[in-house]
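Suppose you are handed only these lines of text.
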Amino acid sequence: MMKKLFLSVLFSNVLIVQTLIARTVEVEVYGMTCAFCVDSLERTFEKMHSISKVKVSLKQKLVQLETDDTLPSIETIRNAILDAGFTPIKVTVLPDENKQK
Ligand SMILES: [Cu+2]
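From them, the structure of the protein bound to copper (II) ion can be written out as follows.
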């Protein structure tokens, strides 16, 4: 019984930490040509629970994602872009913006 209590406390702490820590992932994307491309990329990432904010710039050919600390993985992000019909060129992971301010 003690063990169960201990585990549930530990688990709830982990959940809290996960919602507090965030990161920004920037992906240079090849193949975006119009507003429909932007739309489909936005919709792709808005579906993911671990992503809290999506910004797609057609001009800069950049997808900017605000995500949980570790999820989704870079691999998942790359594959999602490929599945949407575009090519991820360069992925940059930036530290949490809120912490720097
Ligand atoms: Cu397009």
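What can we learn from it? The beta strands are 22-30, 51-57, 62-68, 87-94. The domain at 22-95 is CATH 3.30.70.100 (Alpha-Beta Plaits).
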